[in-house]
């Protein structure tokens, strides 16, 4: 040990004294344990005493709702640079009973990758920001991508090698590959190629014993579970091997918006009857939103807007006749359309100006909502909602007190209907016309303000009940919603309770997920408020 500096135990004691941490024992021993495994490891450990602790924690908090002084904070943040660091973190966390929350991109809707709803929980954040290497192999149309990479970094790396390769995942560049693929991951290519987890062909995972596993050594059950069965549950995914898909060199996009109530509602109604039956080269997504101008600066005060966003795998010449034949009510004109590469379409959907450089995909600091907090919920629609139903939604959006909120609708059909429900844990396949995200954004601070918006959103969700899937009421795991259920105090698994929210996310795949969890992590080391519990925890 370097004698020019205070010795490590003294630093720890000082830290404990400064922060008044009552349970000094696990913390101190944990750090000593890490140091035992690797003497240089403390340089990637950030304690609360470290001047960059807060900025590091906040840099990947993507929902400002969980960036408050009241939000429970980790004991420390650990930023591994190599796999052996993850192994050490798991071994030491287990030995000293410190829970791990693994964070890749930090987009968890309920903040569970860096926080908890249990104020007394002792946990650390294992932040994978330094593990984000990507290797694209054009001849085999595959890529190995580390879990700490963002979607933008992945798309940029693919585009650097080929304009005609892509990966069918989400549409927001800063979303992390670790959490996104662990929960499914859909984007503009879902009707043609399915979701991200459908297109994973291998993975590297560190399990609860600290072993590094690949597909062959983990076995098909665990490999099945990690492709959509939820993050922070079966192990820590270090990297995914992705099967890339072919796209034409030029794709076409359009956005069409309508503000008049009757026209917007009619279009939505009509949209539902065609979207899942369109050729799978075409996806037309939709949104119905209200904005009072405080968050989306460009929009008019208290405007309710119906918007249709589309991606067509081909040029304008092919799109116009297709839209004229399949969805003439929209009245699409060529001046509404724009052609670009598939990689650039991600920037278009994210709202970047048309002339933005592709390098914008690499910007890990962009924020989808600025300082606005948000909550999302999700549903699946199997029968078209009647016009009267949409009229009610329109009225709900007008309710006093709502700032920005609404519905974001992603159309299904195509490849999504061909993949069996049990192929991977993500079960939402044939029979769905579209997926719904109900969402509310707000800028005010404080619990009272938040409760108002949360109540409005819950009211909208309640209103949707007759129009959406039933028994179970399905939900998308990546739009995590603790309203639909959570595990017992401190994140302890509870099979009976989990079955309710678990059926919503995974339908009949839930029990297989529990069996896998029981086999690979029977003591429930990897857990959070909504992770799959092992059977042992309720016996
Ligand atoms: P984060 O790091 O918060 O992880 C989410 C969960 O996975 C946590 O439980 C975490 O512990 C766990 N986890 C993270 N890394 C892990 C790893 N390496 N191994 C094991 N577990 C791990 N979804 C979608 O399908 N399509 C879309 O277009 C979008 N767009 C979008 C935009 C914005 C602004 C937000 C906030 C969210 C989305 N999403 C989305 C939802 C997104 O897919 C979902 O929140 C993902 O879980 C985010 O993954 P991150 O790694 O970014 O989050």
UniProtKB/TrEMBL annotation:
Pfam family, one: FAD_binding_4
Domain FAD-binding PCMH-type intervals: 70-247
Organism domain of life: Eukaryota
Cofactor: FAD
Keyword Zinc among record annotations: no
A GO molecular function held by the record: FAD binding
Keywords from the UniProt entry: FAD, Flavoprotein, Glycoprotein, Signal
Signal peptide: 1-24
PANTHER family in UniProt: OS08G0158400 PROTEIN
Family: Belongs to the oxygen-dependent FAD-linked oxidoreductase family.
Protein name (Swiss-Prot/TrEMBL): FAD-binding PCMH-type domain-containing protein
Species of origin: Linum tenue
């Amino acid at each position: 040990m370097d004698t020019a500096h205070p010795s490590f135990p003294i630093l720890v004691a000082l830290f404990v004294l400064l922060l008044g941490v009552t349970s000094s024992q696990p913390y101190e021993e944990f750090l000593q344990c890490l140091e035992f495994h690797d003497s240089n490891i403390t340089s990637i450990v950030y304690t609360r005493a470290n001047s960059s602790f807060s900025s590091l924690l906040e840099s990947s908090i993507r929902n400002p709702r969980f960036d408050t002084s009241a939000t429970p904070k980790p004991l420390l943040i650990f930023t591994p640079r190599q796999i052996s660091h993850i192994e050490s973190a798991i071994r030491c966390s287990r030995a000293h009973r410190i829970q791990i929350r693994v964070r890749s991109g930090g987009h968890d809707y309920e903040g569970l990758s860096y926080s908890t709803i249990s104020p007394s929980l002792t946990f650390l954040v294992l932040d994978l920001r330094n593990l984000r290497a990507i290797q694209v192999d054009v001849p085999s149309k595959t890529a190995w991508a580390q879990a700490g990479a963002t979607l933008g970094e992945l798309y940029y790396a693919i585009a650097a090698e080929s304009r005609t390769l892509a990966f069918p995942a989400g549409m927001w560049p800063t979303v992390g590959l670790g959490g996104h693929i662990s929960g499914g991951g859909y984007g503009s290519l879902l009707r043609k190629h399915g979701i991200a987890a459908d297109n994973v062909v291998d993975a590297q995972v560190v399990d609860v014993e600290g072993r590094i596993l690949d597909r062959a050594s983990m076995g098909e059950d665990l490999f099945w579970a990690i492709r959509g069965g939820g993050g922070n549950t079966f192990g820590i995914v270090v990297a995914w091997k992705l099967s890339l898909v072919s796209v034409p060199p030029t794709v076409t996009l359009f956005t069409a918006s309508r503000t008049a109530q009757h026209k917007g509602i009619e279009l939505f109604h009509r949209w539902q009857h065609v979207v899942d039956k369109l050729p799978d080269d075409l996806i037309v997504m939709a949104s119905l939103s209200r904005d009072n101008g405080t968050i989306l600066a460009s929009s008019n005060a208290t405007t309710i807007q119906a918007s249709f966003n589309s991606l067509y795998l081909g040029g304008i010449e092919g799109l116009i006749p297709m839209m004229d034949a399949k969805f003439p009510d929209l009245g699409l004109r060529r001046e509404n359309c724009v052609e670009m590469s598939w990689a650039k379409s991600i920037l278009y959907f994210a709202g970047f100006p048309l002339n933005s450089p592709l390098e914008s995909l690499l910007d890990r600091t962009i924020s989808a909502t600025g300082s606005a907090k948000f909550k999302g919920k999700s549903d699946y629609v199997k029968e078209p909602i009647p016009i009267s139903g949409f009229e009610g939604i329109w009225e709900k959006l007008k309710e006093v007190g709502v700032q920005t909120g609404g519905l974001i609708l992603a159309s299904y059909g195509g490849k999504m209907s061909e993949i069996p429900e049990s192929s991977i844990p993500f079960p939402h396949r044939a029979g769905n016309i579209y997926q719904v995200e109900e969402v509310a954004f707000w800028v005010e601070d404080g619990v009272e303000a938040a409760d108002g918006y949360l109540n409005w959103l819950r009211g909208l969700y309640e209103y949707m009940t007759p129009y959406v899937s039933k028994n179970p009421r399905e939900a998308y795991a990546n739009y995590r919603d603790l309203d639909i259920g959570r595990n017992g105090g401190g994140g302890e698994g509870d099979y009976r309770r989990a079955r309710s929210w678990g059926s919503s996310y995974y339908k009949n795949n839930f029990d297989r997920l529990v069996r896998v969890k029981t086999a690979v992590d029977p003591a429930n080391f990897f857990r959070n408020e909504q992770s799959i519990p092992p059977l042992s925890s309720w016996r």
